[in-house]
Amino acid sequence: MATKALVVFLAFLVGSLAVPAPDQSVLFEHVDINARIVGGSPAAQGSVPYMVALTQGTVVRSLVCGGSILTPRTVLTAAHCIAAVFSWGSLSSSLRGVVGTNSFGSGGTQYAFARNVTHANYVSQTIKNDIGLLITTTDIEYSEVVQPIKQAFDFAPAGVVSRAAGWGRIAAGGAISQNLLELHPETIDGDVCVTQVATIGPSLGFRPPPVEPHIEICTFHSAGRGMCNGDSGSALVRVDRGEQIGIVSWGIPCARGAPDMFVRVSAYESWLEQNTV
């Protein structure tokens, strides 16, 4: 019994080491299994074939972040997601990419990763250039429920109806969902987003970093609906074209009437072309 208690304690301790620095951790606690999409609807089985669940654990899967399939060997995610599972010069040995399932804890196919490519100018303190790639050890096998997502490299303006998916809470403070949830937020004007974040953040007791519209996309759904911390790394896809325009990065948690921030994929076209395998 004492041995079991020790194992549980050590598992908790290791998990706690992955949490980012205190000043910014509340903005993207991707390792917090209690924080995910707020107010989302269940995604139909197989309707998000590009979705990747990044998990840790050899016996029980623990969700780290989301990601998207670019090629049979390349998964796109947020840089801070990689940082959470990277230590002593290498990725966690139990890190896996799970595809082909709407439940991160069961089903699907798991793939190990050979290496990562994190943007050289990623700044953890301000959560900028928050983009990274994970390269699988073997090819991801495509099927009806496992497919890559095309990237959109033209500038996404305001008013674009989008789709974001992730695992977690069905409402603020509610129960955790084991099934994939989705929202359809709309992109908003960059200058409006800058003002709203700078105003709403302090009013809610947060000190958010500045929004940079040339490398970030902002979305808004409605108060009570939005992305939450644990959805980091997941794709933002414009509904009309079915193309990825963003990566879940950070926000004022969670669904409290403030915009959500995504990496603007179009700003990293050259970087993606150079590093995608």
Q: Name the CATH homologous superfamily of the domain at 162-267.
A: Trypsin-like serine proteases
Rg to the nearest angstrom?
Answer: 17 Å
Helix content: 10-25%
CATH architecture assignment of the domain at 162-267: Beta Barrel
CATH topology of the domain at 162-267: Thrombin, subunit H
Could you give the distance between the termini? 47 Å
Write the H/E string, N to C. HHEEEEHEEEEEEEEHEEEEH
Strand runs, count:
16
What is the CATH domain class of the domain at 162-267?
Mainly Beta
Largest sheet: 8 strands, antiparallel
- How large is the count of helical segments? 5
Mean pLDDT across every amino acid position: 83
Structural class: alpha+beta
* Low-confidence spans: 1-26, 28-36
Question: What is the oligomeric state here?
Answer: single chain
What is the strand arrangement across the widest sheet? 1-11-10-14-15-16-13-12
- The outline comes out as globular
**Could you tell me the strand content as a percent range?**
25-35%
What does this molecule look like?
The chain is α+β, with helices and mostly antiparallel strands and 277 residues long. The protein has a domain at 162-267: Thrombin, subunit H. The chain contains five helices and 16 strands. It has helices at residues 2-17, 22-25, 79-84, 190-203, 269-275, and strands at residues 41-42, 51-56, 62-69, 74-77, 86-87, 90-91, 96-99, 109-118, 132-136, 162-167, 180-183, 186-188, 216-220, 235-238, 243-251, 260-264. The protein has an eight-stranded antiparallel β-sheet with strand order 1-11-10-14-15-16-13-12. The chain has a six-stranded antiparallel barrel with strand order 2-3-4-9-8-7. A hairpin with an 8-residue loop joins β15 and β16.
